[in-house]
Design brief:
By secondary structure, the chain is α/β, with parallel strands linked by helices. It has 2 domains: 4-120, Four Helix Bundle (Hemerythrin (Met), subunit A) (Up-down Bundle), CATH 1.20.120; 125-338, Rossmann fold, CATH 3.40.50.10470. Helix content is 40%, strand content 19%. It contains 9 helices and 16 strands. It has helices at residues 35-43, 50-67, 70-81, 88-138, 164-173, 190-202, 214-219, 245-255, 286-289, and strands at residues 4-9, 12-18, 29-32, 145-149, 177-183, 206-209, 225-228, 232-234, 239-242, 259-262, 268-269, 290-291, 294-295, 308-311, 318-320, 325-327. The strands form 4 sheets. Strands 6-5-4-7-10-15-16 form a 7-stranded mixed sheet, sandwiched between helices. The protein has a 4-stranded mixed sheet with strand order 11-8-9-14, with helices on one face. A hairpin with a 4-residue loop joins strand 15 (318-320) and strand 16. Helix 2 runs antiparallel to helix 3 and helix 4 (88-138) packs parallel to helix 5 (164-173). It is globular, with a radius of gyration of 20 Å. The N and C termini lie far apart (40 Å).
Length: 339
């Protein structure tokens, strides 16, 4: 299954993507023929996850320059680039395809977009191997691992395989996964809806836990490692990821459990000096005060709804990319024996 892809056709082509808003009840694919349709899909989270958004940005530009005059295509690309501000990959994908368009026209933009797609697939495979190898180094006495994860970082967040959940998949295929503990991930339940769905499809053993149970589960010694993704990694190693990641990192530090961030090298943003410089998207009250159209709070209630939080570098054992492992000097994996 590919979460997002380009469908060639006579006179051009279009984008096809999995509509993640209807999972796990249905597996529905959307055909995207216009840039504004893609912007809508991104904003309502039909497609989400930093790597998938990077591919969406690049393919969206290819779609725009294929069908629109140059000036209108650039305006559409700017709207696409701003659809979600926290994930650096979306802007990078747009910029990559636009640069190719400037030098070689619409065919070059499509070629660059397809290269972004293919590079994401290769990156996912590399991260899976690198992350699994690192866990062997950090936990050499544990042939089978229980891991905790948050939100969705699998194939649905990329094109294939994914980031942190790609590592979990690798452990499962290698016979090294005891089970995965999946935080439900309020308010939209990407863990309970999407990650659990992916784990079930791969035949892996898992349990869903409510977000507020994560800290006590870690403190109880039931978890060997925490694996999360990232939407932006600052130059100093701070990371922005789904809201609740910071809490997991604090709990993992308390429990002396390795806390690994798995993300492609493209998520490292050298232009963002530290976590405080990352723009955090607030998605408004509706997602918190209701769920799928059913009101869960009193009429008139409002909510704070930051989609992401920032985890300081000192709480991260290591960042795993497709190209390297960035180990924190404050690595607490050596304290496993204290558990």
């Amino acid at each position: 299954m590919r979460t997002i892809d380009w469908v060639p056709g006579a006179g051009g082509g279009h984008i096809r993507l999995v509509d993640q808003t209807v999972l796990p009840a249905e597996l529905v694919e959307l055909d995207i023929h216009r840039p504004d349709q893609l912007v809508d899909a991104i904003r309502r989270l039909a497609v989400r996850g930093a790597p998938a958004l990077g591919v969406a940005g690049a393919l969206g530009v290819a779609l725009a320059v294929q069908d629109l005059p140059a000036e209108r295509a650039r305006a559409a690309a700017a709207e696409l680039r701003a659809a979600r501000p926290t994930a650096v990959n979306l802007a990078l994908g747009v910029d990559t395809a636009l640069a190719a368009f400037d030098s070689g026209g619409a065919p070059a933009a499509l070629e660059a977009a397809l290269a972004v797609r293919d590079e994401d697939i290769a990156a996912s495979k590399a991260m899976a191997s690198r992350g699994a190898d690192l866990l062997t180094q950090l936990l050499p006495d544990r042939p089978r691992l229980t891991v905790m994860t948050l939100c969705n970082t699998g194939a649905l967040a990329a094109v294939e395989h994914g980031t942190a959940l790609g590592v979990v998949e690798r452990l499962h295929l290698d016979g090294r996964l005891e089970r995965a503990l999946v935080c439900e991930t309020r308010p939209l339940l990407q863990g309970a809806r999407l990650t659990a769905w992916e784990l079930a499809r791969m035949g892996a053993r898992y349990d869903v836990i409510v977000d507020s149970a994560a800290a006590t589960t870690l403190a109880g010694g039931a978890v060997d490692a925490v694996l999360v993704g990232a939407d932006r990694i600052a130059a100093n190693g701070d990371t922005a990821n789904k809201i609740g990641t910071f809490s997991l990192a604090l709990a993992a530090r308390h429990a002396y459990v390795p806390f690994l961030v798995v993300a492609p090298e493209t998520t490292v943003d050298a232009d963002t000096p530290h976590g405080d410089a990352i723009e955090i998207e607030d998605r408004g009250s509706d997602e918190v005060c209701s769920f799928r159209g059913v009101r869960t709070t009193p009429e008139g209630a409002t909510a704070l709804n930051p989609a992401f939080d920032v985890t300081p570098a000192e709480l991260i054992t290591a960042i795993v990319t497709d190209q390297r492992v960035i180990a924190n000097s404050g690595d607490h994996s050596t304290e496993q024996e204290k558990r």
